[in-house]
């Protein structure tokens, strides 16, 4: 696992990377709650950066909708990250859908939750490099 740099192929459906922040690989289960969608959608977070994250699921999510990503934690309550669904497209050669979510904090507490979670992911990446 490592940092994703702009222009590096990731198996994404896009040719140009318009991200402002480096992304790091991660594999964590989560639930996405979207208003007007009855059940939370099970997803796997596959990469994350300060601006947002990418998830994979078996369901397409409604582009342009706000959402809340609930990530269960072992040693503390679940992290809830607010976002906006930016794209949701099939992954070629699989039955999965790739969905990009941009973080959309509405409060100072939201910003802190996002920063702490992203920092924890980055710290785990650094710890793996040192081992």
Give your account of this protein's structure.
The chain has 131 residues and is an alpha+beta fold. It has one helix at 108-130; strands spanning 3-4, 23-33, 41-48, 52-57, 66-71, 79-90, 97-103. Strand 5 (66-71) and strand 6 (79-90) form a beta hairpin. The longest helix is centred in the last third of the chain and has 23 residues, at 108-130.
Structure described in brief:
This protein has about 130 residues and is of the alpha+beta class. It is about 20% helix and about 40% strand.
Structural class: alpha+beta
Fraction of residues in helices?
A: 10-25%
The end-to-end distance, rounded to whole angstroms, is 13 Å
Q: What is the helix/strand order?
A: EEEEEEEH
SS elements, strand count: 7
Strand content bin: 35-45%
- Describe the strand arrangement of the main beta sheet, using strand numbers: 2-3-4-7-6-5
* Global mean pLDDT: 84
Task: Detail the topology: elements first, then pairings.
Elements: E1 3-4, E2 23-33, E3 41-48, E4 52-57, E5 66-71, E6 79-90, E7 97-103, H1 108-130
List keywords for this structure.
single chain, 131 residues, alpha+beta, 40% strand
